[in-house]
Amino acid sequence: MKYETCFKDSLAFIEKKLQKALRARERSPAIIHKAMQYAAFTGGKRFRPVLTLAACEACGGKPQDAIAGALAIEMIHTYSLVHDDLPALDNDDMRRGHPTCHRKFGEANAILAGDALLTLAFELLTEAQPEEKAIRLVREVALAAGVHGMIGGQVADLAGESRKKSLKEHLYISRCKTGQLIRVSALAGALSAGASPRQVRAITHYGECLGLAFQVVDDLLDKDGFCDVMSPRAAAGKAARLIGQAKAVAKSFGPRAAKLNYLADFLMSRIP
Amino acid sequence: MKYETCFKDSLAFIEKKLQKALRARERSPAIIHKAMQYAAFTGGKRFRPVLTLAACEACGGKPQDAIAGALAIEMIHTYSLVHDDLPALDNDDMRRGHPTCHRKFGEANAILAGDALLTLAFELLTEAQPEEKAIRLVREVALAAGVHGMIGGQVADLAGESRKKSLKEHLYISRCKTGQLIRVSALAGALSAGASPRQVRAITHYGECLGLAFQVVDDLLDKDGFCDVMSPRAAAGKAARLIGQAKAVAKSFGPRAAKLNYLADFLMSRIP
User: Which ipTM was obtained for this model?
Assistant: First the structure.
């Protein structure tokens, strides 16, 4: 089954709620909303929010329970792409076949749109219910997105750009830059469903395996990163083992985890 | 009495806690911590966190009750300066007599250090107790810092840079860009003290008056902004009236609001 078919309902729900969260609001300048919407609605598989909803379902929750976390994480992912594409960072003119946000709206508006998406993510998380759940989400998302997580990985990646990195460095960068946000996507779903500590641990393990595998598969497709320190065959084997571990977790949750299992299969199918 | 003398205890408490919050943590790259610390400890009057502690005291709370909010808001103020100074925005090489963050650490690290400070601000707010207070703080701070607040004002300011702005535009920009963060600094103090709704409204009014006055005084000192649409005498009168309103609120809180009153006096003394 195709990704879009399998997650049709989740994707429709995410698009509807994301549009609502990013609608232009009275009194703020139109340009910032346009830049935020442009960045958020230009392609993208919505892998992270789909994962959040899937993890919530696996723990017995409903999509509505997890949507605040799902949208917040997608906004943080979006902001990170907008800032990564800037001339001072990756200097990319195109993303997903369209001009990058700063090429379309100028650098200043792209920087501010990224800042606004990050800020809005935390505003959204406060809508989660009850309050102790909301505050746990804010904390986990901030930790995953900050200097110990996504930003830390990005900084380490930039710092090592001009030289050959070791396998250990690639693992650190991938676990932080890509892995932490995917881990917290799964975790946010479990927390939103009111999962038990044992379920939360299992879902976290699923997210960690999937997150690292995601980066290994990306590097295989782009022929960089892990491919600089491993043969393609070894990298493919590593990705397959990690995805196998994720599938074992999904299996332990029974039929409610069908979507978690499918997300793992989807990633497996991308291994070249 | 000098500002530094009057707020000696608050300033010492803020520095100690800010240093602790920004200490380098294991496993993250050193450069990002250095850039964050450099931005946070290069001069600065700590007007916003001092205001948060003063508003908390006026409502019967202790410094410890309000420190999470105070530090979070100072971090957001700091990140906004780091991003504002970037070449794509104000393109400033110097701030407070030192090279700006991007001149010292490069543009990429300055962008990421700003992102990290914003993210860390929300992580810190989750330490406020109890949880319903923490979530209210996250919400209010996100709203004040986002597209309806600080970022919205910054975008409007940039959009109108090349032409003469009306008084109405100056008011909108100042209320958003400067005013909202000062308003929420006061509000965070009141909320942290567990203030009554009536006290929260009064403190919010104090913060709004002080926030707008702050920008008018800044424009008077820099001979720009409001001075483009008002005579210096009219702008000074406007600032003095706003500060007078803030002082009236402080008076209504009695002797516990001595510091709120002093902050208003301090601003009044800066009117040239």
Answer: 0.98
